[in-house]
Amino acid sequence: MPAVVIIGGQWGDEGKGRVVDFHARYCSMIGRYSAGTNAGHTIMNERGKFALHLVPAGIFYGDKACVIGNGVVIDPDTLLAEIAMLSERGIDTSKLVISDRAHVIMPWHPVIDLADEELRGDSAIGTTGTGTGPAFHDKVARIGIRIGDVVDTERFPARLREVLDYKNRVITGLYQKPALDYDQILNDYREFGEKLRPYVADTTSIVQEAHWRGEMILLEGAQGSLLDLDTGTYPYVTSSVPASVAAGAAIGIGLGPTAIERVVGVYKAYQTRVGNGPMPTELDDEDGVSLREGGGGVPGTSEYGTTTGRARRTGWFDGVLARYTSRINGVTSVALTRLDSLSAFERIKICVAYELDDERVTTLPASLEDANRVKPIYEELPGWKQDVSEVRHLGDLPTEARQYVRRIEQLLDAPVDMISVGPKRHQAIVTRDIFGGRI
Ligand code: IMP
């Protein structure tokens, strides 16, 4: 069977975790292929509410292989805490495997992350401060440390010495911060290595064999396409290599691109962003506040970051950017999330183009200055003003809600086959499974 990739079509936080959690039932393997501890997935199912950063959302089924691929950077402390939390809550983590090629967040990475933000001053990106960006930086600069190094008791001390000497010169010289202690790091990471060793494997072979056996593989993207280094609103992006867009999935998990047959784009029914950077449809008024606080949807689903707790910026659905990311990812179908959060609105706006210097444009300019100057051109649709959180069939949605969904399908050139109407696993309208079969 071909692999399916699930990606975020906006600035992250689209609800990919719950889409993966729902569709994982059809697969035997679920893999994370990019990003790191900066990512945050909130999942609510019959086992409770969970916040995951690294463990693939397929873990709740117990019988699925869950792979953290070579494209992910791992903070061992966070990962071990996540594994412990899952075990304490009765979730079996024995089918978790971690690529020996995945890079590791070392203690200098959060130090550099925060120091870089300080140096950027007014141009700060608003990173998660988890050290994820600097860890990818080291990967590209070829001075990264990989999980395979950490679990190799014999070679790790020398590799740490070599990299730490270099990093301490940077930290003390450039950033004027105190040097980090070799012995302390060695002890901490030896302990991490001991605990992680049972999970570490050559995941590329495991994934390829599963593919050759014809198993269904679900590849879970992290963050959104607009945060991607190449396709996003650079430099206000994250630093994942491989990309979080669908094209990165093959590299980050170790499959050929021809193994990927379908791409599910997850889009929130409106726009959110954490951190700085252009956001043409951002709302600073009471509608924006209403979107942040749940917009009349289910209480407790308000817009605050899973990783940092920061309030998310909110705005109307940006059809220009959504069409762009749908094409960049080759989206074959769409999961539209949080439709219920629009239930309170009398009128709902969708951005269909921008105005720039009195001209109508249908793409976001690459130049940051211009991207910050565009004015959204909106279409207005009637709201449905009723609770939809108990709706399970498309036909039972109010006409206005169906009209809204249809407009999004037109803009994205792809069918919407899952709509979430509440945070719990069953609060969804699903018309097709991710492999295209009717439900
Ligand atoms: P970094 O990934 O920590 O370097 O942060 C870079 C940008 O990506 C910042 O604007 C972050 O807020 C944003 N970001 C990183 N991870 C996520 C995520 O999982 N959801 C939403 N935004 C994120």
Overview of this structure, please?
With 439 residues, this protein is an alpha/beta fold. It folds into two domains: 3-90 and 202-430, Alpha-Beta Complex (Adenylosuccinate Synthetase, Chain A, domain 3); 103-199, Adenylosuccinate Synthetase, subunit A, domain 2. It is built from 13 helices and 20 strands. The strands form five sheets. A ten-stranded mixed beta sheet has the order 9-7-5-2-10-1-11-15-19-20, sandwiched between helices. Strands 14, 16, 17 and 18 form a four-stranded mixed beta sheet that branches. A two-stranded antiparallel sheet has the order 3-4. The longest helix has 18 residues, at 156-173. The relative contact order is 0.16. Residues 295-299 have low confidence and may be disordered. Residues 11-13, 38-40, 125-128, 130, 132-133, 223, 227, 238-239, 274-275, 307 line the site of inosinic acid. Inosinic acid binds at residues 11-13, 38-40, 125-128, 130, 132-133, 223, 227, 238-239, 274-275, 307.
List keywords for this structure.
439 residues, alpha/beta, Adenylosuccinate Synthetase, Chain A, domain 3, Adenylosuccinate Synthetase, subunit A, domain 2, 2 domains, 4-stranded mixed β-sheet, 20 strands, 31% helix, binds inosinic acid
